[in-house]
From TrEMBL:
It comes from Batrachochytrium dendrobatidis (strain JEL423). Signal peptide: none annotated. Transmembrane segments: none annotated. One of its GO terms (cellular component) is cytosol. Pfam families: HEM4 (PF02602). GO terms for molecular function: uroporphyrinogen-III synthase activity. GO terms for biological process: protoporphyrinogen IX biosynthetic process; uroporphyrinogen III biosynthetic process. This is Uroporphyrinogen-III synthase HemD, variant. Residues 28-213 form the Tetrapyrrole biosynthesis uroporphyrinogen III synthase domain. It comes from the Eukaryota.
């Protein structure tokens, strides 16, 4: 039986909720502590029957700190935690899952078993749609037919590091160099990745929710 379960993406529980009717899940699973990185991930987990912990952390680094803190509180010391880890804990991952959580837990000598359960790929129809709008954007900027074209209203919003990678691979990120075209990110992990590939991030949500993302964009304009 698994001891602990970690979920850092909403994609896994959504997939599992589709399959739950045909999978004979051991009732003991629902007694496990289940850690979730955010509200979007927790909603489908609850629909399956779990009671997620940690959704207010918002990113893997903070979730790892919470997990270690909870374990130390439970067992009295990190040394006792390590003694209690008789079997690896399960971490369901995708092909592009960052290693932040696994590195931090393993640095505390907490063994993890990472199981890849999904892969992410860019959808061609979405990329074609994006290419069309990027082309249309450049045309409007250069066209005398749209002298009122308001560049301040243009935002590139990214919800994951992998989304940034897909856009980069298709050469569609050049538009961020246009004045008044800004980049917003759903959280610190995505923003850090954007900065690491040379993008200038103007707004970062303090928590990975649409409302917090909108607040970050509004605050950007307030600071001008």
């Amino acid at each position: 039986m698994l001891h602990w379960l970690f979920v850092t993406t909403y994609k896994l529980p959504r997939y599992h909720s589709v399959k739950v009717d045909i999978i004979d899940m051991n009732p003991e699973w629902f007694k496990m502590p289940v850690y979730s990185v955010g509200a979007s991930t927790s909603i489908p987990l609850r629909s399956i029957g779990f009671h997620p912990i940690g959704e207010s952390t918002g990113n893997a680094a903070e979730l790892a700190k919470l997990i270690v803190s909870d374990l130390v509180t439970m067992h009295g010391s990190l040394e006792n935690v390590q003694k209690a880890c008789t079997r690896p804990w399960t971490f369901f991952v995708g092909d592009k899952t960052r290693d932040v959580l696994s590195v931090q837990l393993q640095s505390a000598l907490i063994p993890l078993q990472c199981i890849k359960v999904y892969e992410m790929k860019g959808r061609e129809d979405v990329l074609e749609h994006l290419e069309y709008h990027v082309s249309d954007l450049f045309s409007n900027i250069a066209s005398v037919k749209r002298p009122d074209f308001d560049l301040r209203e243009i935002w590139l919003v990214f919800f994951s590091p992998s989304g940034i990678d897909v856009v980069l691979q298709h050469g569609l990120i050049a538009m961020h160099r246009i004045p008044h075209v800004h980049i917003a990110c759903i959280g610190k992990t995505t923003a850090d990745h954007a900065c690491s590939v040379g993008l200038c991030v103007s707004a970062v949500a303090t928590r990975p929710t649409p409302d917090m993302l909108m607040d970050a964009i509004v605050n950007f304009y307030k600071a001008l």
